[in-house]
Amino acid sequence: MAQNEKITILDIARRTGLSKGTVDRVLHNRGEVSRRSYDKVMAAIEELGYEPNVYASLLAKGQHHLVAVLIPAHEPGTFWELAAGGIEKAAESVGTLGVRMQHFEYDQYDIESFRAACARVLEAGPSGVVIAPLFQEETDLFAAQLREHGIPFAYIDSKPETDGYLAYFGMPLYKSGYLCADQLTGGFAVPSALIVRIRRDRNQQSDPTINRRAGFVDYMLEHSPDCILGNVFIDPNDPDSIEGTLDAWFREHPGTRHIVMFNSRIHLLVPWLQRHPDSQRRVVGFDNLKANMDALRDGTVSCLIAQHPDEQMRLAIEALAEYILRRKLPQKKDNFMHMDILTRYNVDYY
Amino acid sequence: MAQNEKITILDIARRTGLSKGTVDRVLHNRGEVSRRSYDKVMAAIEELGYEPNVYASLLAKGQHHLVAVLIPAHEPGTFWELAAGGIEKAAESVGTLGVRMQHFEYDQYDIESFRAACARVLEAGPSGVVIAPLFQEETDLFAAQLREHGIPFAYIDSKPETDGYLAYFGMPLYKSGYLCADQLTGGFAVPSALIVRIRRDRNQQSDPTINRRAGFVDYMLEHSPDCILGNVFIDPNDPDSIEGTLDAWFREHPGTRHIVMFNSRIHLLVPWLQRHPDSQRRVVGFDNLKANMDALRDGTVSCLIAQHPDEQMRLAIEALAEYILRRKLPQKKDNFMHMDILTRYNVDYY
DNA sequence: TTTATTTCCGTGCACGGTAACGGAAATAAT
DNA sequence: ATTATTTCCGTTACCGTGCACGGAAATAAA
């Protein structure tokens, strides 16, 4: 561990009777070195315990790497805004290492815009890419292109089944549904619960909420087998329909109390919930959007399960930087992040 | 934000008609510069948006800074072991910047050992110090010494009332007690609950659990005013006494169900809890020690509130490094970390 | 053997900043 | 006016690597 003096490239040059140029060629094995010399250098490196000086290296090549981030447009108050926030956090840690970040947006409901964004990323010539893969097939195509160019990439949020990525940072979706159910019921059997869903565009192949719902349902089957699970669909862009849909459902099922949503839009229900207060009702949703946290504070929502997309982003960028600068692979390829339970009593510290 | 080209020290030298030597003198204000030149340089720096190249700087001076960490001995399975874990995490991020860390231990029940550790820290001549201040007065003395030497320091876990530190990273203690109460009761009124405590040495002046208990009690007064709160004391080194104490209490108060501890030792109750199973009982404790998380998994403990001391450690070290290397003050001086709620359903991802 | 090619390797500058050294210019002392 | 001091500033030699350039040595082709 403790080396009294730093071994430099010059030391092993002297030791082997070669020049630092040759040693450098060996270190980066860029050829033009005889077998004999190669072995001598390698032996000396081993023997003296040489470790390259990162500063000198970075200074010398003066490389300013670019990491491209490819995520859906982050409208204020959306899930992707949170993710984008992680870019700045990453900038603090790896920015000093000469890594810059650039942000490429696409419309999550328009596959064409995704294709266009991919093209722009390639044009920018990044050293690494972070991808939030919403369109499965298109993502695979893009991944293949990146591999061709030798550009490493990492996924956040969800990941395609195809391999070839450097790392993945996401949430254990199935488990999150399980956890969600436990928070909704408090561990006790409940007679019924309502699942509020948003109808998805068929173009968008990847839907994380499917797995969440599966975990939720399995928990209920185990702990509350007689529970009746209702499903209603709402249109996020039509507040009136939300009101109407919920009113209709509760008129027909007055016994139901608890409500759950598996995406980040639980805040859409706040107006209705406020008009129909019920101190015994539990409402559980996902993700620490500002609107959601406000609902938590005023008691409209009981609990949020947060996955901290900003952390995922930061870790993905850091993993890429580590690989780009030092060729170091991440310890784990698939990283499932912690799920945080937010209530009105701890939400203020997020 | 986007600077096309990096501004170097030479650029501002040329811009001002001075030499890089002079610019350097200004940058490190080591005098021998006329007022006129000083102003010119400062203006150019501002104007061109100069930012020093950390690599070149570190390479040139070859400094390897040392951050000393002063925390209680981290026996395996204790709270401080978690904190010590953060040192390695910090090493990954700031280690590449030439910052090394050294760890100084003391016995948290022996004030003499704390004094000795302080002396050893000063001998090592660190560029910054992280302190977990358990002995209030002694810590103030040490802080004064550090200030004298111009060594910046940061507190974790708790902080003395004296100012002069660079940053503090800890948990909102009072609020954590509040949150704890909410998790224990599920928001409903309960008839009674038992608080299990550990008798403290009077030498140790700083006790974080006091504030926690205050928050807990206040929550109960609001939400469960008629609740009877029991207090028992156990000796952590005597398992038999733990059994006896709990048996005795529950013999006299059979109506009580829920149990809470405000320190990290809830795992001490596991043997007793396992011998007296009760599916309706809620048991809440603090901190993500391995033994605690195991108890969560097998259902013995219902809920843990985690503050992630390793994160506190990492952030404290990073803040120090940022100040040492770039003289940048942390954004906030007092940082209250998030409190995470751990249940059997999300504990596997910690 | 001479000439043309490869193979292999040393030299030297660049990267951006640090700080010691010494000297010119400005001021003070004689 | 001359000398002694300050005050201020430019020059220069590093720090450890990366890499282009050119040339010596070894081999192949003539």
Fraction of helical residues of chain A: 40-55%
Q: Which stretches of chain A are poorly predicted, pLDDT < 50 over at least 5 residues?
A: none
Order of helices and strands of chain A: HHHHEHEHEHEEHEHEHEHEHEHEE
Instruction: Provide the β-strand percentage band of chain A.
Output: 15-25%
Termini distance of chain A?
Answer: 39 Å
Shape of chain A: elongated
- Oligomeric grouping of the chains: homodimer
**Largest sheet, spatial ordering of strands of chain A:** 2-1-3-4-5-11
Short description:
The structure is a homodimer of 350-residue chains. The first copy, chain A, is an alpha/beta fold and 350 residues long. The first copy, chain A, has helices spanning 9-16, 20-27, 35-48, 54-61, 79-94, 111-124, 136-148, 173-185, 209-223, 239-252, 270-275, 290-297, 309-326; strands at 65-72, 99-106, 128-131, 153-157, 167-170, 192-198, 228-234, 258-261, 283-286, 303-306, 334-336, 340-342.
Task: Show the helix and strand layout.
The structure is a homodimer of 350-residue chains.
Chain A: H1 9-16, H2 20-27, H3 35-48, H4 54-61, E1 65-72, H5 79-94, E2 99-106, H6 111-124, E3 128-131, H7 136-148, E4 153-157, E5 167-170, H8 173-185, E6 192-198, H9 209-223, E7 228-234, H10 239-252, E8 258-261, H11 270-275, E9 283-286, H12 290-297, E10 303-306, H13 309-326, E11 334-336, E12 340-342
Parallel strand pairs in A: 1-2, 1-3, 3-4, 4-5, 5-11, 6-7, 6-8, 8-9, 9-10
Antiparallel strand pairs in A: 10-12
Helix pairs in contact in A: 1-2, 1-3, 2-3, 5-13, 8-9
Chain B binds a DNA duplex (30 and 30 nucleotides) through helix 2 and helix 4.
